[in-house]
Amino acid sequence: MTNKQTQFPIAVIGSGPAGLAAANTLLALGHQPVIFEKEKITGGKLSRWHQLFPGFISAAEIQEQLIGPLKKASVKISTETEVKTMKPDSGGLEIETASGEKIIAKGAVWASGYTEFDARRKEEYGYGLYKNVLTSADVEEMLAKDGKLPFDSADVKRIGILHCVGSRDEKVGNTYCSKVCCICAVKQAIEMKKLYPSAEVFNFYMDLRLFGKGYEELYREAQMDWQVNFIRGRVSELAEDQQGKIRMKTEDTLTGVPMKMTLDFVILMVGMEGKRFSFLSENKNTDGSDFISYPENFTGENQTALPNVMVAGACKGPSTIVDAMNDGKSAALALHQYLISQAEK
Amino acid sequence: MSTIPTHTFPLFVVPFLIGLLFISVWLLFLFLKWIGELDRNGLVKFGQNILTKKTLRAIGEVFMESLLHRKLFRKNPLLGYMHMCFAFGWFMIILIGKLEVIAYSGKITARPYVAIFFKHFVSPEEKFVRSGMYSFLMDFFLLMILSGLFLAALKRFRSKTLGMTHTTRHNRIDRWTLAFLWLIFPARFLAESIASGSEGYSFLTGQTGRLLASFLPVQQMEIPFWWIYSIALFGFFILLPFSRYMHIPTEVAYIFLKNWGLDKRRVNRGFTNFEIYSCSRCGVCIDVCQLKTQAGIGTVQAVNFTRDIRSGSLCEEDLKNCLMCGRCNEACPVGIDITLQKQMYRGQFARFDKNEFTYLNTPTPAEQSTVVYFPGCMSSLSPGIEQSMVKIMEQAGEDFKVLGDEQRACCGRPMLLSGNTEAAQKLIAFNRDFILSSNAKMLVTSCPICYKMFRENYQLPIPVLHHSEYLLQLAETGKIEMEKQQLRMVYHDPCDLGRGSKIYDQPRQLLQQAGTLVPSNFERENALCCGGSLGNTKINQASKDKITKHLVEELSAPNPELLATACPVCKRTIARHSSIKVMDIAEVVAENIRKKTIQPNVKEEFESLLK
Amino acid sequence: MTHSFGYSISQSRETNWDKLDHRFADKLLDLEPSVRLCVGCGSCTGTCTAAPRSGFDIRKVHTRFRRGEAGAFVAELEKCMFCGKCSMVCPRGVNIRNVMDLMKKLIEA
Ligand SMILES: Cc1cc2nc3c(=O)[nH]c(=O)nc-3n(C[C@H](O)[C@H](O)[C@H](O)COP(=O)(O)OP(=O)(O)OC[C@H]3O[C@@H](n4cnc5c(N)ncnc54)[C@H](O)[C@@H]3O)c2cc1C
Ligand code: SF4
Ligand code: SF4
Ligand code: SF4
Ligand code: SF4
Ligand code: SF4
Question: Which residues of B touch A239 (CB under 8 A)?
Answer without folding.
Answer: 380, 383
